[in-house]
Amino acid sequence: MNIKRAYHQYCGLASALDVLGERWTLLIVRELLLGPRRYSDLLADLPGLGTNLLADRLKFLVDKGVIRQCLSRPAYELTEAGALLRPVVLDLTRWGFGFTPDKSTVDAVRPRWGFLAAETRLRAEWAGDVDEDYEFHVDDEVFRFEVRAGQVQAAAGRAPGQATVVATADAVTLVRLGSGQMTAADALAAGELTISGPTDAVQRCRRLLDLA
Questions:
Q1: What percent of the chain is helix, strand and coil (3-state, nearest 5)?
Q2: For position 3, what pLDDT does the model report?
Q3: Structural domains of the chain sorted by starting position, each given as residue range(s) with its CATH number in brackets
Q4: What is the pTM of this model?
């Protein structure tokens, strides 16, 4: 049986690390930020993580109340407590961009990671009092930002209706934008990022995601 290490310190940070500090744990949380995922999806999008270790990490997180198995389908999702980690993961991602080198030939990349990089640019205070969906087509997957009455929600999948704005980029470009290795102006000029829709909505989307 895999015995989890503990710091045995009477401190909130130490307690958090007792739950999240093991290798792969926060990356599993990252994969669930945009909605439920099947075991096979997690295994495919976490290259280098073996099936036995994934099963162990998932069981531990379920036991701790961070994730749960969906009732409607065979998948895992964040609990209310797990969802509170979203700003933590986004802040760590922003911080980590300061240490992100240029992509090497051995580095994996996934569409979700690119969209997460786009979410790190989100300036929620610029969300207008509108009802709009901004779709991001990242490689072969689609994600969206739902803007409702000044609130923004990121999710996987197409907009429930017609998307107001559609942005297209590959995951590498979005990570490069998030890390500051490329400017939005350069990405747009090179055609590596395209944003289409009504002019005023495109302007709102670009301002919301700091893509001026």
A1: 40, 20, 40
A2: 62
A3: 12-84 (1.10.10.10), 111-208 (3.30.1050.10)
A4: 0.94
